[in-house]
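Re-running the complex after MR caught last week's input typo. The corrected sequence lines follow. Everything else is unchanged.
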Amino acid sequence: MALFERHVFVCQNVRPEGAPRPSCTRDGKSELFAQLQMFAKAAGLAPQVRINKSGCLDQCEHGPTVVVYPDAVWYGHVQAEDAEEIVNEHLVGGRPVARLRLADECVNTKSCPHRG
Amino acid sequence: MALFERHVFVCQNVRPEGAPRPSCTRDGKSELFAQLQMFAKAAGLAPQVRINKSGCLDQCEHGPTVVVYPDAVWYGHVQAEDAEEIVNEHLVGGRPVARLRLADECVNTKSCPHRG
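Corrected-run output:
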């Protein structure tokens, strides 16, 4: 297979102090990204699966956000300690992690009941 | 529709001078990104279509690269002056731009006959 089987985009956006919308990272660096990469590598997923840095995914109120294509599965409020479960369940097992999913009705909205 | 109908990732990666692999942008800024955003906005595509900055898409030898999900259509060697055609043909018209497409067999390879 030449194309990526799954392409995972991890928001790295950082906004200036006091900006009206929140940031996905504090300083453009993301332990979540590093952990996803590390677990994906450990699972032997490269090069079919790529963990990618991305700019603002425009779901700032639900960040840190991650989107997995071509599935178009969105995760919200993801923490570094969630990385292993995303890799093992979704990227290896093909089962999106229900507890971390951003509900469809939350995407492109400013508020969302997801994880409080 | 809550999710993005199309999500366009535009590589903004920049490597240090003398790096063994080429960069998609010279300084992390991309006229291609700005033009895609401008034409998408002019076509009234937001918020169903998002033009997104991305980190390295790992297709450096074919850059600047753009990938459109969930279609998983890859474009290579894309210039700012190609933005209008990508927006009008692909994002509005649903017809990927054949002359800019990265052939499936080029993805994840270091050389590719695409556009020389």
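None of the earlier attempt is carried over here. The two ends of chain B are 40 Å apart (CA to CA). The mean pLDDT of chain B is 89.
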